[in-house]
Design a protein that fits this description.
By secondary structure, the chain is an all-alpha fold. It contains 9 helices and no strands.
Length: 247
């Protein structure tokens, strides 16, 4: 893709009696997922024809909000514990999100954005999740990348270097998940290094910030680029090296 464009089951639970997250199953009608609940308002709703209809409609709204809340909670909590079953959790979560993404796209994207920006110590977890979603449906991956690309642009324009650094780390990790191409991250590096590409360019506070962001990104993308685009990596390292030498 181009820019252009928690868990372990309880001990004693048999494999057939646990859900996709390794927890003992509870009796749920119609095989509902853990985050799904029946519509509220009771059977048949309030008395009276129109009131009963209103209750059922309100129940559907409440159910949708409840599902969205539980989807957000699943995304936020993933990776909170250092569990050997994390990969299994991510696999199961990607299946859940793929199933409900179309109906709850805004909630999923908003939660993804907030998690990357506010939980930077788990950015590698969210990059892996994005990669799994992209593997299942490339359109979902494209929407996540496009959204975070806009977040990056706003951060750079407003001088929010902390947010920019985290989003760039996220993008760097997406290269290893084959969600974005090496050429895409190289293009981003070129944008960051453009102000210092001229050997006669004097070092300024702004140019130092952009070079710092580029160096930070290379720490996370370097391994993938060394395998997939070694010449491009060496060229950008050369730009950074020359800037540091004359600063």
């Amino acid at each position: 893709m181009d820019f252009a464009g928690r868990l372990g089951g309880r001990r004693g639970a048999s494999r057939g009696n646990v859900d996709e997250f390794g927890r003992e199953r509870r009796d749920r009608p119609h095989g509902r997922k853990p985050y799904e609940r029946p519509a509220r308002g009771g059977r048949g709703g309030a008395r009276g024809g129109s009131m009963g209809l209103g209750s059922r409609v309100g129940g559907h709204v409440d159910e949708a909000k409840d599902i969205e809340s539980r989807l957000s909670s699943l995304i936020i909590k993933v990776g909170d514990t250092n569990s050997a079953a994390l990969q299994n959790y991510l696999d199961a979560l990607s299946v859940v999100l793929e199933k409900d993404y179309t109906k709850h796209e805004v909630t999923v994207l908003k939660t993804f954005r907030q998690c990357v920006l506010e939980l930077p110590w788990k950015v590698s977890v969210y990059a892996t999740l994005a990669g799994l979603l992209n593997a299942k449906n490339s359109e979902t991956g494209e929407k996540i990348v496009s959204m975070m690309h806009m977040v990056l642009g706003r951060a750079l324009n407003s001088g929010d270097w902390g947010s920019a650094k985290v989003v760039l780390r996220f993008f760097a990790l997406l290269v290893s998940t084959r969600t974005i191409t090496p050429e895409s991250i190289v293009g981003v590096l070129d944008v960051l290094l453009a102000p210092v590409g001229d050997g006669d360019c004097a070092a300024t506070a702004g140019s130092r910030c952009f070079v710092f962001l580029a160096m930070s990104t290379l720490l996370w993308a370097g391994r993938s680029l060394s395998e997939l685009a070694p010449e491009a990596l060496e060229q950008r390292l050369g730009v950074v090296r020359r800037f540091v030498e004359r600063s």
